[in-house]
Amino acid sequence: MPWPSRKRDKAAVADKKEPDAKIAKTEEEAPDKEEEEKSTKAPAGSSKSGWKNWKKTKESDSGGEESKITYCHWLLKSEPESRLEKGVDVKFSIDDLKAQPNQTTFWDGVRNYQARNFLRAMKLGQQAFFYHSNCKEPGIVGIVKIVKEAYPDHTQFDQKNPHYDSSSRKENPKWSMVDVQFVRMTKRFIPLSEIKAHHLAHKADGGPLKNMMLFTRQRLSIQPLTQEEFDFVLSLEEEKPH
User: Fold this and answer.
1) What is the reported pLDDT for 51?
2) Owning domain of residue 155
3) What is the 3-class SS of the chain, one letter each residue?
4) Is the Cβ–Cβ distance between 213 and 220 less than 8 Å?
5) Per the domain annotation, does 213 fall within a domain?
6) Which one in 70, 86, 116, 162 has a CA-CA gap of 20 to 30 Å to 47?
7) 203-240 in b/e burial notation, b at 16+ Cβ within 10 A?
8) If you average pLDDT over every residue of the chain, what do you get?
9) pLDDT tens digits along 115-138
């Protein structure tokens, strides 16, 4: 891969236009605990017009019953702008992914235990939002899918790599990665500011984004999404930007 360790987790930082995301240069240490994971079919992404119509449709489909919270989709943060980390440029945009052979690459450099566990929970074929982070205007730019489930991250053993971990052993690797493949660009850029506005509204009325990890655990560059969160955010690509 011509861009080593572009995807990172150890050095996740605050999105520049998100004042509430007071994130240090290193992620907070999280409990080494597996999150419950359930594989499900990817959504079609049909158009909805705002939270009220979305809620009405979902209640009609489910009989008004609340579904059990399970994580079946993901959000992957990556930096689209150049930034040196231990002499290595960690830039990796969605255009860089599209330029890879078969538009596929490994998602390496994760050095947070909770994020690593999320990686290990990913299932073949599951979809994730590709999120541009630590840039002028952060937000969702596309969709990728998991094409290889978790396996040892080779960068942990490479002393020249900024994510080298001297405490990890090949017989018992501490860190994992997955392979992802480009699926498509979103129909429009979905900015963090727009997602946050819905999150705040949903906190008040019980909408699907009320507990979205993008705002409750901002430091994590690997984040799970429920089916409802994924569906609602995907529906925003059909809306005119505010």
Assistant:
1) 53
2) 73-188+218-227
3) CCCCCCCCCCCCCCCCCCCCCCCCCCCCCCCCCCCCECCCCCCCCCCCCHHHHHHHHHHHHHCCCCCCCCEEEEEEEECCCCCEECCEECCCCHHHHHCCHHHEEEECCCCCHHHHHHHHHCCCCCEEEEEECCCCCCEEEEEEEEEEEEEECHHHHCCCCCCCCCCCECCECCCEEEEEEEEEEEEEEEEHHHHHHHHHHHHHHCCCCCCCHHHHCCCCCEEEEEHHHHHHHHHHHHCCCC
4) yes
5) no
6) 70
7) eeeebbbbebbbbeebbbbbbbbbbbbbbbbbbbbeee
8) 81
9) 999 999 999 999 999 999 999 999
> Would residue 32 count as lying in a domain?
no
**CATH code of the domain covering residue 94:** 3.10.590.10
Domain count, the chain: 1
Query: Is 116 a member of any domain?
Result: yes
**Mind listing the pLDDT tens digit for each residue in 138-182?**
999 999 999 999 999 999 999 999 999 999 999 999 999 999 999
Q: Is residue 163 part of a domain?
A: yes
Q: At which residue do the structure tokens 């994130």 appear?
A: 23
